[in-house]
Amino acid sequence: MKLVIADDSSLMRERIKSQVSCFTEVTIVGEASNGRIAMDMVLEFDPDLIILDLHMPEMGGMEVLKKIREAKIKTKVCILTNYSYPQYHDRCIALGADYFLSKSDDFEKTNGIISGMINGVNL
Predict the structure, then answer these.
(1) Does domain 2-118 have CATH number 3.40.50.2300?
(2) Residue 52 has pLDDT above 60, yes or no
(3) How far is CA 96 from CA 29, 49, 115, in A?
(4) 59-77 pLDDT, tens per residue?
(5) What is the mean pLDDT of the chain?
(6) Which of 33, 99, 116, 117 could be stapled to 78 by a disulfide with Cβ–Cβ 3.0 to 4.6 Å?
(7) 67: Cβ–Cβ under 8 A, 6 or more apart, which residues?
(8) What is the pTM of this model?
């Protein structure tokens, strides 16, 4: 399974990498510190999943999500954000996000999502 991690915080990218390191089936094919790089990585690597922050420089996560869906790219999108307000959640789901998680409340759920994808179970 190919994974792209997109977050402007290097500490958060490290935390996500540490979290998913238990999966031998996961290859992190790219790390992006801004939305433009994230979109380039999606186009280049065709990942199975992108873990995407909402607020990043150059292009926000919502714009990346919108471009992924407009291009009909099959990559699953997991929004992982500090801004887990209902209006962000609703907008991201409407734009086609597969998952919307709060960094503070739902971080541990990323492993469940990855495990489900590896085992062919859609959570």
Answers:
(1) yes
(2) yes
(3) 22, 13, 21
(4) 999 999 999 999 999 999 9
(5) 95
(6) 99
(7) 39
(8) 0.94
